[in-house]
Amino acid sequence: MPQSSKPVVVISGASRGIGAAVAQTMLDAGWAASLGMRNPAASAFSGPDVLNCRYDALDPASERSWFAQTLATYGRIDALVLNAGMMIKKSVLEATDDDFDTIFAVNVKSPMRLSQYAWPHLEKGPGRIVILSSLSGKRIKSDGSGLYGMSKFALTALSHALRQCGRESGVRSTAICPSFVATDMSSTLTGVDPALLTQPEDIAAIVRSVLSLPSRVSIADIPVHWSVEDCY
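and the corresponding C-alpha cells:
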C-alpha cells in the first residue's frame, strides 16, 4: 500500500458550497484530499493530490468503497471533514416517519459510519474530525426548522461523543455550527443578500485552523453567525 508524504483529508459533500471551499483550502495548504460526492465525474478538482470518489449517504456500500479507494491511493487518513447533509423543511408535527428516517440517515447515520471507518487510521496520527453541523443543532428558531434541527442536534452530539472517544488517543472532534452561509441551500431559506452572509471560504478557514491545532487544544463546538445573535 502506498503511503502519501502529505497529510490526507477526507471530505464528504465536496462538490460545491462549504465542502468545495474546504477542499480548495486544504489543497492550498499542502494536503492531499479524498473527496466524496454523488457525481465524481463532474468534480472541479483534479491532480495527483486529489481523489474524487462516489459517495451517497443513503448507500453504505459507496462509503466502504470510498474509504477503500482512499487507503489504496494514499495509505493514510489524517482528518475527516463531515460536510454532506440535507434539509427537509417541516415542523415536527408535519414530518412523516419517512421524512425522519431519511434526514437522520443522511445527517447522522452516515457521518457516524464514516467516523467508524476513519477512526483506526485517525488514531495513528492522532488525527482530527470536523463535523459541519448548524446553529440549528444548538437551538430551534422556527417550526419549519424543527425536523432539521433535531437531526443537527444529534449530529452535534455525535461530534461531542467522538471527542470523548478520543480522550486518550488524542483524536479530537469539533462541531462547527454556522447559521446561514452563502450556499445553494441557504438561497432558498433567507431573503438576505448573499454578500452579507458568511461565505463558504470563511467556514473553510475555520476548518483549516481547527485541523492545525495540537491535541492539547480540544474544542467542542464553534457557533458562527453571519451577523449577531442574542443567544444560541
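(Above: one complete record from the training split.) The mean pLDDT is 94.
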